[in-house]
Design goal:
three-stranded antiparallel β-sheet, 11 helices, alpha+beta
């Protein structure tokens, strides 16, 4: 004799899983009233839905930061979804917070590394949390990127509503770190706004530089410039490339009379010492998302 599925059973399952009412009823019927069995069925149904979405672009989501109390280490993660509606979901945001905290604890420098780590706030691995979100929500959701920065001072910034995240690591001997941090917050906001690709000129790889030189030389030739002056033109363009793409060479967005390096140097001097930005990380949500078409 079939087990009678009551409205209370359906309601409880819906509250537990977030699945639709009819899906909950069908799962309970298939599981013959067994609650845990119905949850398993819904998860399996959700995983099938998620698999069908693998070809879609998860270009929405949020960036989230976790920084230790001493402000000497920080984690930045990017958790992606298909829609901004899901990214604003409380459970999605809680997952991002927990995963970022685990990234800080485990010093994880990649999404692959972080996915296998236990998230204390949720009692399971990061990859399992993501899989459950997929099962429950039915969208393509992925932990896309993660990184970790450790230094004498680490500062972070999330640009509202969470679409750009920045971490900065600084080597410093200043006496007044609080004063230095005020300026570093501004630098983090500058990075969010200006999107530098490199920290300094030394970080620009040869392949990028060679490609830039070739483009500049070809533009000069197409404009009819004499061949003998093209090398000088190219070197001038390379300096402009550094100015546009290297953080320390960029004009500070709040005061274009100084470079970012000059701003950091001045802030460190005012705080009673020296400071050098050793690393920065910037995640803009969706910038590395796959552009595959939906199936």
């Amino acid at each position: 004799m079939p087990v009678a599925i009551t409205s209370t059973m359906v309601r409880d399952l819906r509250e537990k899983t977030g699945a639709g009412m009819m899906e909950c009823k069908k799962a309970l019927e298939k599981a013959e009233g067994d609650f845990d069995g119905a949850v398993k069925i819904l998860r399996e149904m959700g995983e099938i839905k998620g698999a069908k979405r693998e070809g879609r672009t998860a270009a929405e989501g949020i960036a989230h930061i976790a920084i230790n109390d001493a402000e000497t280490a920080g984690s930045l993660i990017e958790l992606n979804s298909e829609t901004d509606f899901v990214a604003r979901n409380e459970e999605f945001q809680s997952a991002a917070k927990g995963i970022a905290a685990t990234g800080l604890k485990e010093k994880a420098k990649s999404a692959a590394e972080l996915g296998d780590k236990h998230v204390a706030s949720h009692g399971k691995k990061a990859a399992e949390i993501v899989a459950e979100l997929v099962a429950k929500i039915g969208e393509k959701i992925q932990l896309n990127r993660a990184d970790y920065v450790e230094a004498d001072v680490v500062t972070g910034y999330i640009h509202p509503p969470g679409k750009i995240g920045v971490l900065i690591g600084v080597k410093t001997d200043v006496k007044d770190k609080a004063k230095l941090k005020e300026s570093l917050k501004d630098i983090a906001m500058h990075i969010a706004a200006m999107g530098p690709r490199f920290l300094n000129e030394a970080e620009v790889d040869a392949r990028t530089l060679d490609a830039e030189r070739e483009i500049c030389a070809n533009i000069a030739r197409n404009e009819g410039k004499p061949e003998n002056i093209i090398p000088k033109i190219v070197e001038g363009k390379v300096k402009s490339f550094y100015k546009d793409n290297c953080l320390l060479n960029q004009e500070f967005v709040k005061d274009n009379k100084q470079t970012v390096k000059q701003v950091v140097d001045a802030a460190a001097k005012a705080a009673g010492g020296t400071a050098t930005i050793t690393r920065f990380v910037r995640f803009k949500v969706g910038e590395t998302a796959s552009k595959e078409a939906a199936e």
